[in-house]
Amino acid sequence: MSERYAERGVDEKAPDVGELTPPDRTLMGPGPSDVHPRVLKAMSTPLVGHLDPSFVEIMDEVQELLRYTFRTDNQWTIPVSGTGSASMEAAIGNLVEPGDTMLVPTNGYFGGRMKSMAERAGGEVVEVDAPWGEPLDPVDVERGFNEHQPDVFGFVHAETSTGVRQPNVSELTDIAHAHDAFVIADCVTSLGGVEMRVDEWGVDAAYSGPQKCLSCPPGASPLTLNDRAMDKVLDREEPARSWYLDLSLLEGYWGDERAYHHTAPITNVYALREALRLVAEEGIEERWTRHREVAGDLKVGLRDLGLEMNAPDEYWLPSLNAVRVPDGVDDAAVIDRLLDEYDLEIASGLGDLEGDIWRIGCMGHSARPKNVEYVLAALEGALAEQGY
């Protein structure tokens, strides 16, 4: 035992911790978003066992609702136990084998995370370059394939760090499939809020997080793989390096067998089921339209304040609005002021854009006109205090 811990000893008194009373925030950052009251209510319902016949029925329902939301018929569509990073690592860690080459983007923070996960899976990583704040150019992707012949290609459909949406997804998947490569799509900030069509656009595997456009607490994260991708998972020469995220083992639990693998986060699955019910009730295309229209009002209001969007209109990501910080304005002071005075959360930039942008989410239950009005009024006040 280190000297530091030896000196502390054991406190014999029980901790005096009061009742849980977190602040009631309006969540307009890059996630989590406001949770719908029906989802919170679902989380308060009684637990059953993760192999209980009633829970097996719930599993079936969640899978069917996920297929609707992903716009896919993939049999292998599940919620991974964990946050969005868990579904991300499940996709990459199972499709990238030692010796495989993966082509990843450099145009945002989460392309870098793809790189790290692929390397940890034993893959060799090559990059397709694009500046932060711009989408990938299919010409550059084609060049990357011709030069490196990668086995797997990953792209970020909705880059949370830059507020950029990747257009022309089908062009990218066509290039990859012409080279017999697998395509992995990061849909963390788009699923359920921005148009994403897994089957029609030729995506082999896609993952997301529940806390963004689905307005669900993190803990059970969407993942889908088509038959071609799952065949690769099942035909691997050596098992995936993560036992917990090994999809060939998880198939036994989420497939027809429903055999024990681990204890599923039951309450989180309840929550995801209710969040997906809300998607289905609204209609997925109507939901895409709502996000685009409400976020469009936000974009107009920001421009009325004299603020500049980070992404051009043709690449604008409705669910995550990246706004340039004006010269002479302290971005962190504005964020702190909104949190302290208005109980309103927005976020600063990541990586190459740290200090240069604010990231304002417009996702799920947060994508409502009254929230847009609130964030615009609060932002106007906070900027005025700095003499803007």
Automatic annotation (TrEMBL):
<dbReference type="Pfam" id="PF00266">
    <property type="entry name" value="Aminotran_5"/>
</dbReference>
<protein>
    <submittedName>
        <fullName>Alanine--glyoxylate aminotransferase family protein</fullName>
    </submittedName>
</protein>
<keyword id="KW-0032">Aminotransferase</keyword>
<feature type="compositionally biased region" description="Basic and acidic residues">
    <location>
        <begin position="1"/>
        <end position="16"/>
    </location>
</feature>
<feature type="domain" description="Aminotransferase class V">
    <location>
        <begin position="48"/>
        <end position="349"/>
    </location>
</feature>
<keyword id="KW-0663">Pyridoxal phosphate</keyword>
<dbReference type="InterPro" id="IPR015422">
    <property type="entry name" value="PyrdxlP-dep_Trfase_small"/>
</dbReference>
<dbReference type="InterPro" id="IPR015421">
    <property type="entry name" value="PyrdxlP-dep_Trfase_major"/>
</dbReference>
<feature type="region of interest" description="Disordered">
    <location>
        <begin position="1"/>
        <end position="32"/>
    </location>
</feature>
<dbReference type="GO" id="GO:0008483">
    <property type="term" value="F:transaminase activity"/>
</dbReference>
<dbReference type="InterPro" id="IPR024169">
    <property type="entry name" value="SP_NH2Trfase/AEP_transaminase"/>
</dbReference>
<dbReference type="InterPro" id="IPR015424">
    <property type="entry name" value="PyrdxlP-dep_Trfase"/>
</dbReference>
<comment type="similarity">
    <text>Belongs to the class-V pyridoxal-phosphate-dependent aminotransferase family.</text>
</comment>
<dbReference type="InterPro" id="IPR000192">
    <property type="entry name" value="Aminotrans_V_dom"/>
</dbReference>
<keyword id="KW-0808">Transferase</keyword>
